[in-house]
Structure formats: structure tokens, C-alpha cells
Amino acid sequence: MAIHSVRTEGLRLTDFVSRLTTKPILATTAMYGPWLPDGTFDFDSYRGLVRDVMENDSVPATNVDTTWAQYNTWDLAREIIAETARVALGFGDRFPADRPLLVVGLNTNAEDLAVADIADSIRAKIADLQPVLERIGLDRVRYMPVPDRRLLGADRETKVSVYKQIGDVVADATEYGMVFFELDIGIPDFGSDFDLDAVAEILACTPAIREYKSAVIAAKTGRWEYDYDFRDDLARIAVVEQVAPGRVQFSTGNDWCIALARLGANLPRFGYLLGASQISPSLFLKWRRTVEADDPAAIALEQDLQAAARDFWTPGNVGVYRHYIAILLALTGQIRHPLPHPDVDARFRVRPEDYWRPLKHAVRLGLVARDEAVERARNIIPGAAQLPEDQLAEKVRLLG
């Protein structure tokens, strides 16, 4: 390239990325479930989180992993879903009519079921929720069945049949459909093991599927040059594009792969669960707007958001991500206490010395002003209040 042709005026994002989609970027955010020191759910903080998400044009997903769904009783889950719906109802005019205002996760893994009973269990949960949602007045609901462990190792015919049954159940309950969720985070006997042909057949045979969520992030040692490789994700994007481009919204749980949105060139709608939208709904909205404006600043913002997600979503211990998000939200004043679920195993709790990591990202992303960081550290980080003032200030300064 000749030197005289290099200029900054008129540069577009498409100058850096060849497959930028021109389609709208829509978002769905997996809600965090905050807790109080007495072991009860912090509904006041939670309602604030839902409002923040929706004010930044993202749809809340609740009763999911980061709402600690696997630890909660169904009675508490139903109450959390109801509170989310009450808040969401006030934002109906903010979103197009074809978008749900709420995504509800449904998990059957803890139940003693046969494969043939999975769809009936989901039907029972939806039937239990529907009167609650009807009383609130919210009918714009999409359901997200979590992959059932009993389908692991099952033949393709069985997997396709179960998802067709689930699709029929969901179609009877809502016109906003369901999320087809693929999950492989390296936990034995948990998640899903669909091959690409099964993914394609399920998408084709289940009209109720309106969104495809990929969380295939387990180590792939021996398959590719690197243990963690994005080729699987790209192949799945291609399948969704080929089979259901006009029907299915794409979302991904691969937090550090937010850039995969750009590869959905043939999709009319796509968004994300987790990742940047959880770290900061306002920054996630800013990123989406810079992409839509062809502004190269989107590249830098995207990399900054990915850096935090990579730090929190630790391969080999993905469960600790939830507690990291709690600490970040407490440091940024979004929730009152940086606590995980009271029943969570110790290995999914952030160590006291690692509380500084979320503060580093909060300051770097501008979510905490540098002149406020010392006070935030003193109030939130274990042991910080016992440090001499000059040592605490120096430790904060060295965060970068």
C-alpha cells in the first residue's frame, strides 16, 4: 500500500473485519442472582439489575446458571422469575413486539426422570409458571431448556425426538418460542454432546426454536493445534445460517468470543447471553452501537470487555465466574454484597487475594473512578480495611 493512501478519515469497521454483518445486534443478558449475608436472596438489588439490563436494551434471562438456578428451590425460582417479569413488564414499549421481554431457563437435571419424561417435566414447570405470569400480565416469554444429562450418549433419533417434543410443549405455551442450548463446559455427565448433523436436524424439525445458544467451551485437546479452539463455534454458526437463517437468533456463551457476532452475516437477529452484557449492560450497548456505526472504536472496546471475561471465566473452573461477577457488581455499586449462593462449593468461591482482579477491570473499564477505587476496595475486598492508607492507595495504583 502506498504511504500517501493511508489515512484515518472514513475508516470503517469493515476495513478491519471482512465479514461484518449489517443486521441489528440484539442482546439477552443472563441475570446475576445476588445474596444477603443472612442467606436470603437480595430482591432489592436484583430488581435494580433487571432494570439496568433493560434500560440498556437487553432482555433478561433468569433461572439460569448465574442466577444460581441449580442451587435454588423451585419455589424460590418461581419467585425470582415473577419478580423479573414484574420489572420487565414496564419495558414493553422499549423492545420490538417480536422480541420476548423475558427468557426463562428450565432445568430438569436434578429430577429422577426417564428420557421419555423430559418434555413432560418441562410442561409441568411451564404450567406452574403460566398462572403467575398471567397475573402479572406478561406474555412475551421465551423458554430455554437446559440440556438434560440423560441425553448424553443417546442416539441421534432419541435426541431429535425429545427436542421435537419439547418444541411442541413450548409452542403450546408461547409464541416467542425457545432457545436451543448446546452446553459443554468440561463437567463430566453434564451438558450435551450433539454432533453437527444432530444440531441441523433439531433446528429443522423444531419450529419453536427461535434462538440458538452455544456454550461449547470445553478443552479440545488432541483435536486441534490449541486446547481451546473456536472452529467448533464457527461450524455451528454455519449450520444455523444454513438451516434457519430467517427464524433463529444466534447467541453464544463463549464470553471471550463476542466477536463471533460479526460472523453471523446471514442472520436477521442475534445477541448474547453472558459476557460483556453482564459485566456492564451500558458498555455492551455502547459496543453494539459502535459496531452499527462502523466505528473502529468497537475493536478496542470489544477487546477490553473480552479481557475481563477471560479473567473471570476460568477454563477448568467455570463455576467461579459467578462469584467474580458478584464482586464486580458490588464494587461498581450494582448490588450490596459480593456474595455467592450460600450453598455453593468452596471451589466456586473467589479467594480473598483474587478480589483485586475485578477491581482492576472495573477501574480499567471506567466502571469505578480511580479516585473512588480505594474506598471501594476498603469496603468490599477482604483485608483491605486493615491495610495502612498509603499501602492501600499504592496497591490500587499498581492495578494499572
What keyword list fits this structure?
alpha/beta, four-stranded parallel sheet, TIM Barrel, disordered N terminus, 13 helices, three-stranded parallel sheet, 400 residues
Task: Describe what you observe in this structure.
It is a single chain. The protein contains 13 helices and 7 strands. Helix 2 (74-89) crosses helix 3 (118-136). The longest helix has 19 residues, at 118-136. Helices cover 40% and strands 10% of the residues. It has helices at residues 43-55, 74-89, 118-136, 156-173, 196-205, 231-243, 276-279, 281-292, 297-312, 320-331, 356-364, 373-380, 389-397, and strands spanning 27-30, 58-62, 102-106, 141-145, 178-184, 209-216, 249-252. The radius of gyration is 21 Å and the shape is globular. The two termini are 36 Å apart. Strands 1-2-3-4 form a 4-stranded parallel β-sheet, with helices on one face. A 3-stranded parallel β-sheet has the order 5-6-7. It has 2 domains: 15-295, Aldolase class I (TIM Barrel, Alpha-Beta Barrel); 319-397, no CATH class. The protein is α/β, with parallel strands linked by helices and 400 residues long.
